[in-house]
Structure formats: C-alpha cells, structure tokens
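wait is this the right file?? whatever heres the structure
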C-alpha cells in the first residue's frame, strides 16, 4: 500500500497525519523550548491530557530511533528536535510527493494549490516567484 494511502485511512483527528498525536506534542514542546530533559517534556506534554511519565519516555525513545529527536548525554539526558519545523516539512514532502506525483502530477499540483489557497493565499505569490527564479537559473523549462 502506498504510504499516503495509509494516511487517508487515519481516524484520529490531528493536524499532522504523518506524526502521532504525542509525537506532534513532543516536537511542538521541543521547538518552543529547545533542548529539554525527559521530565521537562513530560511536564509540558501532560498538560494536554493525563499521561504516565514512562509513556512519554517510550514515545521519545521511538522518536530517537526514527531520527526525529536527538538524545544528548549530559548531567541528565536532554532531547532536542532533529529538524526545524521547516526541515521536517521538507523531509516529509520529499518522501511523499514522488508517490503522489507518480499517480498524477497535474492532480497533485492542483491539490497542492488548493490547500495553499485555503491555508495561506500569500504563499501562492511566493511560489510564483520561486518558479520564476528556477526558470531563470535554467532549472526548469517553460
């Protein structure tokens, strides 16, 4: 099954279908707070809902194995996001877009433009400038 088809089948409501709910919460905490201990992350994440400390540590360990979070040794282990929000978005895009474009490039582009128009219409102009810049550099043909 294509990766993105699994995403369509997701039933839990959340912003990202690429990350679990707690993974999202952990990354948000790390992006906001920088390097944090497991205890600090637990304190931030449990504000959303009641959780066991060990649950947060288990998810953190899985995120470290996935390469989403870095674990640094110090007086106490510290965790930090392996990617900025923008870097992670680009990484996920690079993984998923080839599969989507492989089905129908024009539909993928149209869908992307629809989402962009709904979420941030100003980005359409930015995208237009980026495309023109690529054309001038010879990276695209007309």
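ok assuming it is, sequence goes like this
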């Amino acid at each position: 099954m294509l990766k993105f088809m699994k995403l369509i089948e997701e039933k839990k409501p959340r912003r990202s279908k690429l990350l679990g709910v707690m993974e999202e919460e952990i990354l948000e905490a790390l992006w906001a707070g920088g390097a944090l201990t497991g205890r600090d992350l637990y304190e931030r994440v449990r504000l959303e809902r009641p959780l066991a400390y060990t649950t947060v540590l288990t998810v953190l360990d899985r995120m470290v194995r996935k390469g989403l979070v870095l674990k640094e040794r110090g007086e106490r282990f510290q965790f930090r996001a392996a990617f900025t929000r923008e870097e992670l978005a680009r990484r996920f895009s690079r993984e998923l877009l080839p599969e989507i474009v492989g089905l129908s490039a024009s539909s993928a582009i149209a869908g992307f433009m629809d989402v962009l128009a709904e979420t941030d219409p100003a980005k359409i102009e930015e995208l237009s400038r980026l495309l023109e810049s690529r054309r001038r550099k010879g990276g695209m043909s007309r």
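Residues 1-12 have pLDDT under 50 and may be disordered. so i think its the right one actually
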